[in-house]
Structures are given as structure tokens and as C-alpha cells.
TrEMBL record:
Domain of life: Archaea
Domain (Macro): residue spans on this chain: 1-180
Protein name per its UniProtKB record: O-acetyl-ADP-ribose deacetylase
Regions crossing the membrane: none
PANTHER family named in the record: GANGLIOSIDE INDUCED DIFFERENTIATION ASSOCIATED PROTEIN 2-RELATED, MACRO DOMAIN-CONTAINING PROTEIN
Cross-referenced InterPro entries: Macro_dom, Macro_dom-like
């Protein structure tokens, strides 16, 4: 399903984000940038060692040697078909009283801004924070769709959400149907 929003398009797909042939895919990374499970593991497995080497270089120069949640950095796509990987760290769900929504929104906005500054035209996102980090899917879908829709008001871009399972896909579909 896809919908024109502002100057851009939001498209929802079901599948594996590592198959995307786009300017950049977004990784739901963890703060160490050293890889992990879920989508992070899949991206590093398919993308090869180059991505990890670049992540190591980046993390070396960060205060405290970690990437705080809500921030985003960019590496090459390594062996992936995507040209770049944007790594962002979602919030861990702690019941909703720890500014999780604000942080999750920042993940989307900072990834989109990074892509825009690189001149990228098409990005693909997974559902950040709704796996190991435990963010309730309906709430995360609302934040994700609203953040991207707000960005597209002023920016021309194609933004795909590549969602791994039916439940996640349906949650994002419901939110996209409501947005104008
Ligand atoms: P987080 O730690 O941010 O919660 P996870 O990787 O655990 O990240 O989960 C985020 C979402 O990514 C979940 O919906 C999970 O099912 C999904 N996911 C896992 N592997 C892939 C993949 N290869 N492509 C797209 N989505 C994936």
C-alpha cells in the first residue's frame, strides 16, 4: 500500500529490509553499534564486515563510545543492494513515562534529516523499537507514521516501511489510513 503525503510518498511493504534496493535502509541498532539480534543482526550478516568496520570507526569518536537513543549515523551499505545504512538507536520501552515517544520520533526525524543531507531520495525503515526493545506496536506505528508524514510536508522523498510480520504491517496500515 502507498499514499501520497505532502511532497512525498509513504509506502508499506511486508518483508525483509535487507532485500531493499534503495538509497538507504535504516537499522534499528543498539548503542554499541556492534551489531545484535533482530533487524540489526540481519543487516550486519547480509551487509558484511565493512559496515561493522565503519561502525567501529564512528563509535570510537563518540562521547562515551556509544550512540545515544534518538540519534542517527550513516555508513556504506557494504554488500547490501542499498547504498547506505543509517543506524539509529530506538528507545527501550519502560512503560511510556521515560519520553519514549519523543525519542522514537527523534530516531525517524534524525534518520530522515541525515538522508536529506546526503541528497538521498528513497529510504526504507523497519519498525524501530518494537522487537527486543518492547515498544507496543500500535503506539510505535503512530509515532513512526506521524514523524514521517510531518517530515514529508516540506521534503520530497519516498519513504518505505518494510515490516516483517502481519501484525506489524496491519498496525502501520491502520495508522497510514488515518493520516492525511
Ligand atoms: P529493536 O531492538 O529496535 O526493538 P528489533 O530488531 O528487535 O529492534 O525489532 C524491530 C522490528 O524489526 C521487529 O518488528 C522485528 O520483527 C523486525 N525485523 C527483524 N528482522 C527484520 C528484517 N530482516 N527486516 C525487517 N524487519 C525485521
Amino acid at each position: 500500500m502507498e499514499k501520497k503525503i505532502g511532497k512525498g510518498i509513504i509506502r508499506l511493504k511486508k518483508g525483509d529490509i535487507t532485500n531493499e534496493k534503495v538509497d538507504a535502509i535504516v537499522n534499528a541498532a543498539n548503542s554499541s553499534l556492534m551489531g545484535g539480534g533482530g533487524v540489526d543482526g540481519a543487516i550486519h550478516r547480509r551487509g558484511g564486515r565493512k559496515i561493522l568496520e565503519e561502525c567501529k570507526e564512528i563509535v570510537k569518536n563518540l562521547p562515551g563510545r556509544f550512540l545515544p537513543s534518538g540519534k542517527a549515523v550513516i555508513t556504506s551499505g557494504g554488500d547490501l543492494d542499498a547504498r547506505y545504512v543509517i543506524h539509529t538507536v530506538g528507545p527501550i520501552w519502560r512503560g511510556g513515562k521515560d519520553r519514549e515517544a519523543e525519542t522514537l520520533r527523534k530516531c525517524y526525524i534524525s534518520s530522515l534529516e541525515l538522508g536529506k543531507n546526503k541528497g538521498l531520495k528513497e529510504l526504507s525503515f523497519p519498525s524501530i523499537s518494537t522487537g527486543a526493545f518492547g515498544y507496543p506496536i500500535d503506539l510505535a506505528a503512530e509515532v513512526a507514521i506521524n514523524a514521517v508524514a510531518d517530515f514529508l510536508k516540506d521534503n520530497e522523498m519516498i519513504v518505505n516501511f518494510v515490516l516483517f510480520d502481519d501484525r506489524t504491517f496491519n498496525a502501520y496500515k491502520e495508522k497510514l489510513n488515518r493520516v492525511s
